[in-house]
Structure formats: C-alpha cells, structure tokens
Amino acid sequence: MLAITHKMGAKALAEGVETEEDLKCLIEMGYDLFQGYYFAKPHPTPAKEIHSIYI
C-alpha cells in the first residue's frame, strides 16, 4: 500500500503510532505522516499549533 500511495504522488499516513519505536520503524519504512497516542490523545477541539519536533 505504501508503494502505491507514493506512486500516486500522495503522502502515506500511518495511524495508531503509540511508541517511539513504532515511529522509528514507520519512518524507516517510508511513511510521511503519523498520528496516534504517541503524539497526543484525542481531544474534542483541534490543536492550534504543532510542536516543531513533529514537523
């Protein structure tokens, strides 16, 4: 799926990232975007800013 996503020119999103180990593995695999409890738990209002380590 990752290869198909990149072939289409899209960015690949990995959901469910819970640990730093998960994040490192997904980065090595080639994912572009990430979300999950590792970054923040769900919140009823959107974030107003994103910490620079996540960009």
Give structural notes:
The protein has 55 residues and is α+β, with helices and mostly antiparallel strands. 29% of the residues lie in helices and 11% in strands. The chain contains two helices and two strands. It has helices spanning 2-7, 20-29, and strands spanning 13-15, 33-35. A two-stranded parallel sheet has the order 1-2. Helix 2 links the parallel strand 1 and strand 2 (33-35). The relative contact order is 0.19.
Report the sheet-strand fraction. Answer: 5-15%
Tell me the structural class: alpha+beta
Task: Estimate the global geometry from the Cα principal axes.
Answer: globular
Radius of gyration: 12 Å
First-to-last CA distance: 23 Å
Mean pLDDT: 90
Q: Could you give a short account of the major beta sheet?
A: 2 strands, parallel
User: What's the number of helices?
Assistant: 2
H/E order of the elements? HEHE
The side-by-side strand order for the widest beta sheet comes to: 1-2
Proportion in helices? 25-40%
Overall strand count: 2
Question: Which spans have pLDDT < 50 for at least 5 consecutive residues?
Answer: none
Short overview:
This protein is 29% helix and 11% strand.
How would the blueprint of this fold be written?
Layout: H1 2-7, E1 13-15, H2 20-29, E2 33-35
Parallel strand pairs: 1-2
